[in-house]
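Hi P.,

Sorry for the delay on this. The queue was packed all week, but I finally got your sequence through. Input first:
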Amino acid sequence: MSGGQILILIIVTALASSVCTLVLGLVAFHRWARPRLEARLAAFAETVETRVKAGAGAAGRELLEPLRAQVRGGVGEAATELLPRIRAELTAGFREAAAESLPAFREEVRKGFADAIASLATTELLDRTARKVVRTGSSLVESGLNLLRGARPDEREEPPR
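Then the structure:
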């Protein structure tokens, strides 16, 4: 064998040995090392998550009350600033709406009164009113005559019905 062939044999042997070592390393990593690393990584992730949640919750609780106070103050200030303007706008709007609807409202009231007066002028209502006036007048006259006669109310005869 020549020197070039020996060199090629050494290089091929080195490459074959490297490939075999790499394959065996990958098999060992996938079978044993990777599951252990994933389990440790999952446990570490849970620990980090728990600590982050606890820290965020504590920070949130610490900041919640000052934030509420700031929001209340801001809303109160905004309401104080906006309330007069809103009142003025509402008042103007109501006045405008009232001015627009007042003639129609007056007309409706006039029509209502006219209808009420027209319904009072019916003959039936007049007949009933006249009957009541006649009854009241006749009973007053009868009472006056009974007083003049000296008769007592319980001695009077009952009129037939």
